[in-house]
Design goal:
By secondary structure, the chain is of the alpha+beta class. The chain contains three helices and eleven strands. The protein folds into two domains: 28 residues; 155 residues, Immunoglobulin-like. One of its GO terms (cellular component) is membrane.
Length: 235
């Protein structure tokens, strides 16, 4: 026979058997990549990060749409602050840099919104001369309804150590001569808005009122009277 091999003594043992092929087995992967949640947990953290990222994007979109809907429904307007009256009965800086002061302030807070109420959880009124804070007082918390104007009064009185720089010292000398003092009232608030049955998280707006207040006991003010002053609101 033509297929016999002469070196095997003429016997025919059949065709040669090829060597077995090696097969490789992949553990935990199918198709070379991650294709299901089980694969993600077992083989790569990138899938988990992708899922988390997609969830965060979806939440941000939902919150944004909800905020837009609330704004379109309620159309909030800014709250307005005014100082309607101020009375200064003492403002004396001694040679020891101790400032003795007594200042009465009346504010009006206007909520112009028709559908939004405001919770004033904290109101702190601070008195400043130049860059130096000299005193503070707190106003009791309250709730303000729709389209409402609330009158708030406070008194800042006492003594404190105040060290003025050269410019502020010259300003104080001028104020003493004129009897009209340039005092800043700054309000630090913690407020929440009420939209129907929904209450917002807390906001911390900063209110600044630049005042010119005559000293009540001074005879040099030439009839100057305190003028109603609008405050700057920074949310």
């Amino acid at each position: 026979m033509g297929d016999r091999q002469p070196h095997l003594n003429g016997a025919y043992y059949g065709p040669s058997i090829p060597p077995p092929t090696k097969t490789s087995h992949s553990h935990g992967r199918r198709g070379g990549g991650c294709c299901c949640l089980g694969d993600c947990l077992g083989c790569c953290g990138c899938c988990i990060l992708s899922v988390i990222f997609n969830i965060l994007i979806a939440l941000a979109i939902v919150v944004g749409i909800a905020a837009l809907i609330i704004w379109l429904i309620f159309r909030p307007n800014a709250i307005k602050f005014h100082v309607t009256d101020a009375k200064l009965t003492q403002f004396t800086l001694g040679t020891d840099n101790n400032l003795r002061y007594n200042l009465d302030l009346n504010f009006t807070i206007r909520n112009p919104n028709r559908r939004i109420g405001v919770y004033y959880d904290q109101i702190e009124v601070r008195g400043y001369y130049g860059d130096q804070r000299f005193g503070a007082s707190n106003v009791s918390p309250f709730y303000q309804g729709h389209k409402n104007t609330t009158v708030v009064g406070t008194n800042i009185a006492g003594q404190s150590l105040v060290v003025l720089n050269g410019g502020d010292r010259r300003d104080l000398d001028e104020d003493v001569k004129s009897g009209i003092y340039r005092i800043d009232a700054k309000l630090r608030l913690k407020i929440r808005f009420k939209f129907g049955l929904i209450k917002s998280w807390k906001f911390k707006p900063k209110i600044r009122c630049d005042l010119k207040v005559p000293l009540s006991s001074s005879n040099t003010t030439s009839g100057f009277q305190f003028q109603r002053t609008k405050c700057d609101v920074d949310f």
